[in-house]
Design brief:
alpha+beta; about 280 residues; three-stranded antiparallel sheet; two-stranded antiparallel sheet; 9 strands; 8 helices; 2 domains
Length: about 280
C-alpha cells in the first residue's frame, strides 16, 4: 500500500515494473543505426563509386569497405578477431579476404554516435580518407598509362605510327582506335565545343564577339586548366569517338563521315584532313 507522509502536494510519478533495465545517459547517447533498406552489396563497386567506399587498415593490410560500415575503429577490431578465428594470414588470398569483409558487413550493424567525435579522431579519419582517395587516383592513372602503353606496343608491332586511326564494324557499330589522341586534337575539340556554348548564350547575341576574340579567350581558359581537368576533357572526347561520333563545326556528327575513304590493309582509316563535312549526324 502506498502512503503519502508529510506532503501537501501530490507529484506525478511513473511506476516502473520490477525487472526493467536502466541505461546510463552515456549508453543512451550511442544508438544503433538501421537503414530503411539494406545496402546493395551486389552493385557495390569502390572503383566506379568511390564516394560510397572507404578503406580500412587491418592486421592483414588495406581493404575496401562500404563507407557506412566504417564509422569508428570497432569494425577494424572485430575484423581482426574474425581473421584470427578463420586463420587468415598474410598468405591468404587478398580477394578471398575482401569478399569475406563484404559478407561480414551484411551481418554487422554500424554504430553511430550522437556525440561529435573529437578533433583528433576526425583528423585521423580525414587523413585515412585522403590516403585512400590518393591511392584510388594513382591506381586509375596507372591503369590508363598501362592501356596507353599497350596501344603503343600494338602500333609498333604492326609497324604503324602513333597517328590516330579508326576501324568501324558496320554490324556491331563498335569502334576500334589505334594511335594516340594528342592534346592538340583535344584542344581543338575543347575550342569548338566551348565556342558553340558561347554563341548559344543570350548575352553573346546582345554583343557578339568575333571568332578570333572567342578563340583568344578560350585559349587563355584552356591554359589555365589543371592537368587533371585537361585529362578529363581528353577522356570525354575519347569516349565520344569510341561511341562512333565526332564533334565538327559545333555539332555531333557520325565518325564515319569524318574518316577518309581510303582503307588500309588492316581495315583502319585516318581522319580527313581539313575537309568540311556537310553530312550531320
Amino acid at each position: 500500500m502506498l502512503q503519502i507522509l508529510k506532503s501537501s502536494k501530490i507529484r506525478t510519478c511513473i511506476i516502473i515494473p520490477k525487472g526493467t533495465s536502466f541505461h546510463s545517459p552515456r549508453t543512451l547517447a550511442r544508438i544503433r543505426h538501421k537503414s530503411s533498406r539494406a545496402f546493395d552489396f551486389a552493385n557495390f563497386d569502390p572503383h566506379a563509386n568511390p564516394n560510397e567506399a572507404s578503406a580500412i587498415y587491418t592486421s592483414l593490410g588495406w581493404f575496401f569497405i562500404p563507407l557506412k560500415y566504417n564509422t569508428d575503429k570497432q569494425p577494424r577490431l572485430l575484423l581482426d578477431q574474425e581473421f584470427k578465428r578463420n586463420r587468415f594470414t598474410t598468405n591468404t588470398n587478398h580477394e578471398k579476404i575482401q569478399q569475406f569483409i563484404y559478407k561480414w558487413c551484411q551481418d554487422y550493424t554500424p554504430t553511430i554516435y550522437k556525440k561529435k567525435m573529437s578533433s583528433k579522431i576526425e583528423s585521423e579519419q580525414k587523413k585515412l580518407q585522403l590516403l585512400f582517395r590518393q591511392q584510388m587516383s594513382d591506381k586509375i592513372h596507372t591503369e590508363e598509362e598501362a592501356k596507353a602503353k599497350e596501344i603503343e606496343r600494338a602500333n609498333k608491332a604492326n609497324g604503324v605510327s602513333d597517328k590516330l586511326r579508326f576501324k568501324l564494324d558496320p554490324q556491331t557499330q563498335q569502334v576500334e582506335i589505334r594511335g594516340i589522341l594528342k592534346m592538340t586534337n583535344v584542344f581543338n575539340y575543347y575550342i569548338q565545343k566551348q565556342t558553340q556554348r558561347i554563341q548559344s548564350d543570350a548575352d553573346y547575341k546582345k554583343s557578339p564577339l568575333t571568332t578570333r576574340e572567342i578563340r583568344s579567350t578560350l585559349s587563355k581558359d584552356w591554359s589555365g586548366l589543371s592537368p587533371e581537368k585537361k585529362d578529363a576533357v581528353k577522356q570525354e572526347y575519347l569516349k565520344l569517338l569510341s561511341s562512333g561520333k565526332d564533334y565538327h563545326l559545333g555539332e555531333v556528327v557520325d565518325l564515319d563521315s569524318r574518316l577518309s575513304d581510303e582503307v588500309s590493309e588492316d581495315g583502319f582509316r585516318f581522319k580527313k584532313s581539313k575537309i568540311v563535312n556537310k553530312h550531320r549526324a
